[in-house]
Amino acid sequence: MKISIGFSPCPNDTYVFDALVNQLIDTQGLEFELYIEDVETLNEWALEGRLDVTKLSFPALFATQGNYRLLDSGAALGKGVGPLLVSKEDQGMDPSLINNSTIALPGQHTTAHFLFSMAFPNALKKEFMLFADIEEAVLSGQNTLGVLIHENRFTYAAKGLHKIMDLGTYWEQQTGVPIPLGGIAIKKSLAESKGNVIQRLIAESLLKARQQHTISEFVRAHAQSMKPEVMQQHIDLYVNDYTLSLGSDGKKAIRMLFEVYQRLQAGEVTEALRNENNSPFNEWLLEPEA
Fold it and tell me: Is residue 170 part of a domain?
């Protein structure tokens, strides 16, 4: 059976999926048709239901209206991994100034946009663009502020940009839980048994990667001009035990993000949404087999 699968070219994704898509492990008779795209492209495709299995930001998962189920493995989630709000000038965090600034953001459906909106709900002068273009947009003066994700967290200071706020730290201070950035989801129309096989294979692929002592050619090829030390920093930051399995803490964090998402969308969160046994969020989880 052929399964269409999409993830980003970022080192954390290529590291996790290398062994799976390149058949370095037994894929149980499954073949994977690979699509490597920017995360916002994958978010938009998920809203269209284009791929069988896909990496996507959690706000995009919520917006799919239950057409995808979240897998237990492959997620990017943790503490100290959040997006950064930066500027060209070394300025303070004045909300009135931020509210009146033009902000470059890496996609409408990204967790970065969600966290920025949570912190600054009155900042509306937004421009969405490819994440890799945001540093230059701020440096050139096209945008006053930018929200950085991925490897740009490691390069912005050397390029002369200044951190105004760590949006991940803001989330952690407000909630006390890790930051759910993105996960791996499977079309709900596919059999649950197939989803269980795939999430086991993703975990096995990650374990295979952890046995390697060097960055693979697959990771290097898609990281393009990124320096090897930045690739390793990227992997070390975004790949952790939550990537292997969400666990109860990971699920709690995603559920809380869902509740805040509902609050931002509808103005309030009902008691039913606060009750994890009644929350529709549970319908979007594909629980691992015992």
Answer: yes
Quote the DSSP letter at residue 95: H
- Average pLDDT, 10 consecutive residues per value, the chain (290 residues): 94 96 95 96 97 97 91 94 90 80 94 93 93 92 92 83 93 93 95 93 97 92 84 91 95 92 66 43 62
Structural domain boundaries enclosing 137: 84-175
Give the residue numbers marked as catalytic. Answer: 150
How many whole angstroms separate alpha carbon 128 and alpha carbon 57? 15
Specify if 289 maps to a domain.
no
Q: Which two tokens stand for residue 16?
A: 């996790």
Measured on CA atoms in the order 58, 109, 20, 11, is the torsion positive or negative? negative
* pTM, rounded to two decimals: 0.89
Q: Name the token pair of 80.
A: 């100290």
- 50 and 89, same domain (yes or no): no
- Pair (127, 268) in one structural domain: no
Q: Based on the domain organization, do 124 and 247 belong to the same domain? A: no
What percent helix, strand, coil does the chain show, rounded to 5?
45, 20, 35
